[in-house]
């Protein structure tokens, strides 16, 4: 059978432990999930994977750890397309098990600040089980609920607190990258912020700059965006659609962030096929999309989800927001990265002649706009291969620029006869 645990804060706990206890009577039970925020009993109880097979739409650190030991399998996607996968391509879900709040006055069980593709799961599930917990915030939304009449069974949850996602303080490289990006953000811009220290560092700098009337249309609601809201920098007054609303599809962060969404009509939790659709994103002017990558080659291919054949995270919504921001009037997309990293005691460049074998291209060279490191920012739109190589070398770490240029000339990425 195919089971679906849903996403992040909505993954069940009591049901998960009860299912793990039945391990020896089951085999080849397949479970879909996304962004697992705490250890799963079915995985921990079954190290060989004989009984339970774990699949993920996007890796958390736990999913990544399980993948490294052969217990988790990644499903490639554009995150905003997943509701369509359930409705068009996947077989019916045998059992859906999702966490939700107790029933409200309208006969609905709210999934808290998470919508994603949960409505599509419910539509396609033969059996729907809700694990009831009062610790999820009561978030306002369009698709973050299930009606009592759609539920087959209720499970009393243990009311453990929703897991938090730590937000490490930005380092000097993060701040340097953020300074380059923050200078491109104007009053009234509409923000999409990805996960990580660099995007959140941009929020901190915007907070200090006194910028006004920001809008938010994002996939993930982050603590950085929450801080901008609490400081009064986010009003959404200049948005063309969902004016005055902070639009998002799921929240991961601190308890303070979760609390901000509780019965707060300024926040609107929507399906991911709405938040991530480039055709929707582009309807707001001046969209600013900020996302991380782990490696970029001299032609501008951004590999943001793997280290060779080792999968790290997922495509998520990066490509869809890059395209949506480009299509927005005066919109800009930023792919940011530290210029170097350490591996096996060796200092290495993240800007490279060619990607690590096995690395997955998340954003193609034809879509990348701004690339930002601590050494500067470059816009690759309209640039030839040679111009791109020169531009990217200019923001690489100085220790690697000469070698990169020599390699680029050697392979004719930069023609010798052309002066840029």
Automatic annotation (TrEMBL):
Keyword Flavoprotein set for record: no
Domain of life: Bacteria
GO BP terms in the entry: acetate metabolic process
Domain Acetyl-CoA hydrolase/transferase C-terminal, chain residue ranges per copy: 253-408
UniProt GO MF annotations: acetate CoA-transferase activity
Gene3D superfamilies in alphabetical order: 4-hydroxybutyrate coenzyme like domains (3.30.750.70), Acetyl-CoA hydrolase/transferase C-terminal domain (3.40.1080.20), Glutaconate Coenzyme A-transferase (3.40.1080.10)
Keyword list, A-Z: Transferase
Residues of the Acetyl-CoA hydrolase/transferase N-terminal domain: 8-160
Record flagged with keyword Transferase: yes
Pfam families hit by this protein: AcetylCoA_hyd_C (PF13336), AcetylCoA_hydro (PF02550)
Family per similarity comment: Belongs to the acetyl-CoA hydrolase/transferase family.
The protein's name: 4-hydroxybutyrate CoA-transferase
Source species of the chain: Occallatibacter riparius
